[in-house]
């Protein structure tokens, strides 16, 4: 995943069998991501489940709520409309 903004960029890479890569005139070369998404994101799923159980045990709200899931859906819908209509689309047009 890569996110670009006016002040820079941030990237999160997939887990791969190794962390090695090399660059040459043809580009940057690295191992392909692990095959299945559970292999690639197992640590994230474990952390998510631990956090969920802790919220239940302590009767606290989760750090991520429904709005956190809704916003990326709205972003995807705006991006699709923007592509289809060939213009910038604000999230307020979707919500």
Q: Layout of helices and strands, plus pairs?
A:
Elements lengths: L1 E4 L2 E4 L9 E4 L2 E4 L6 H22 L7 H20 L5 H4 L1
Antiparallel strand pairs: 1-2, 3-4
Brief overview:
The protein has helices at 37-58, 66-85, 91-94; strands spanning 2-5, 8-11, 21-24, 27-30.
If you had to describe this structure to a student in words, what would you say it looks like?
- With about 100 residues, the chain is α+β, with helices and mostly antiparallel strands.
- The protein has helices spanning about 35-60, 65-85, 90-95; strands at about 1-5, 10, 20-25, 25-30.
- The strands form 2 sheets. A two-stranded antiparallel ribbon has the order 1-2.
- The mean pLDDT is about 90.
Can you count the helices? 3
Overall mean pLDDT:
89
DSSP summary, beta strand count: 4
Largest sheet: 2 strands, antiparallel
Order of helices and strands: EEEEHHH
**Which overall shape is indicated by the principal axes computed on the Cα atoms?**
flat
Strand content: 15-25%
Q: Could you tell me the radius of gyration in angstroms?
A: 19 Å
Measured as a percent range, the helix fraction is: 40-55%
Q: Low-confidence parts, pLDDT < 50 over ≥5 residues?
A: none
**Head-to-tail CA distance between termini:** 24 Å
Instruction: Output the structural class.
Output: alpha+beta
Keywords:
single chain; 95 residues; alpha+beta; 48% helix
């Amino acid at each position: 995943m890569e996110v670009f903004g006016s002040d820079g960029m941030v990237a999160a890479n997939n887990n791969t069998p190794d962390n090695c890569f090399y660059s040459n005139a043809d580009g940057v070369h690295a191992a392909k991501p692990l095959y299945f998404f559970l292999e690639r994101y197992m640590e994230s799923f474990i952390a998510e489940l631990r956090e969920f159980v802790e919220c239940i045990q302590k009767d606290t709200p989760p750090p991520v709520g429904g709005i956190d899931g809704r916003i990326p859906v709205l972003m995807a819908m705006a991006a699709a409309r923007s592509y289809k209509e060939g213009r910038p689309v604000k999230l307020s047009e979707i919500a």
